[in-house]
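Notebook, bench 3.
Goal today: get a predicted structure for Proteasome subunit alpha, bacterial from hydrothermal vent metagenome so we can plan the truncation constructs. The sequence was checked against the plasmid map this morning, with no discrepancies at the termini. Length recorded as 245 residues. Pasting the sequence as submitted so the record is complete.
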Amino acid sequence: MFEEPYRWAEAVSNRREYLEDQLQSGSPVVALPCIEGILLLSVSAGTQKIYEIYDRVALGALGHPADVERLRNIVIDMAHLEGFNRSPSDVSARRLVQFGLAPPVKQAFEEIGRAPYIARLLIAELGKDQNRIFYSLNYDGVFKETHTGLVLATPGDATERCESALKNCERLENRGMSEVFGEAFKLWGLAEVAEDSRESHLRDVLKDREIEAMLLSESVPGPCKVRQLSKTEMMTFSQPWRTPV
């Protein structure tokens, strides 16, 4: 289709610009360690942003709902196949990202004749001995691993702001869920607007949008260590932004 390499490179560059433009309106997703395990948080106007994938794995997504659903089904199918053919303990975020998600996402991005996935993903795993692992997967198939938490923000300044702020969040793994919930909500706000507008933005958001949060914790009974936070918990933890100034 593209006989000359520079034409292919130009087409890929144009595709990258298109995808980043499409992702600008997406709602960020935050995943942070806490003493209980891992907390994932986002804010939405109805579209689900955070999903259980397997016993110890959860996914957060920013992008087009149809593309997110396609990728979610891919990773769920792989997780359950791995758990059945091997064992539940062999299902890991690393394998799901490296062998399940990254190859089809990269292929769709580079094949100019195909529609790319308009999505960025966050995958969190609560490993044994409270080992917390976070992966971010970009729309081009590039993924990164960290153990300190992640903010899945829109490309550009928002990502840089959040990365800088996350470095200043000290010892989150030793802080309780209610405190880390506040940090996650503030990071979500920073991914949306500049710091000087954050507090007013967070108060405005709660007037017509809903917080969505999920916890991965050893305290959850049974083999599945994933649970949604209740509305009561989220109302309580977000009360500082619901109280009139």
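The first strand starts at residue 29 and ends at 34. The mean pLDDT is 92.
Flagging this for group meeting.
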